[in-house]
Amino acid sequence: MKRRAGDLKVRAVEARREGREREAKSKKSPSRPDLGVLSRRIRVCTECPLHASRTQAVPGEGHPQAKVVIIGEAPGRQEDQTGRPFVGSAGKYLDHVLEGTGFERQDFFITNIVKCRPPANRMPKVKEIDTCTSLYLFEQIRLINPRLILLLGGVAARKMLGAKSVEEVRGRVIEQAGRRFLASYHPAVRFYREDLAEKIKEDFRLLQKELAKLPPDL
Ligand code: URA
User: What's the number of domains the chain is made of?
Assistant: First the structure.
């Protein structure tokens, strides 16, 4: 009789433990999407007015555990047509400066502050930026957990670092909110500000230097 009571007690303790484990598991899984789920959500997103004029949303692409996430402003015409980031003329220049780092485009994760092309390439509005980053970009960064974030252009520097200009934040690593950032000019400025080409190259040399400091197994 004594033995049976002991067995029942052990079983009750086990049942309670299993219940707690089940509860913890069910709390973890439903609300945390992976990068693929996020991309699919972005492609059908209608949360801001930019969805109405887009051809395709551009979630971003690259290595899911990239050491560096590169963030531009917004898709342009070719990105809107292909659904891929930085594939137009600014993208060609970005590829060129990335080559100098010894890494390939696929080693990075490349995306934008907003995922849909603003009409006639106007600047994205604050409300569009806030909606898109809070729904998608911040979650992409959390999932990838990069060692460095490279911001390209004033829109990205303003949103992610609160900077007034790229000039204010470029040329050094900035640590903020537990992340490390580098900032540079948007590659498109190269086409109307030839004088900035050298500064852009300098910024990518700094990226290369920072990459070299990271453990190779990452
Ligand atoms: N400019 C950007 O900021 N992002 C792109 O994807 C293309 C051009």
Answer: 1
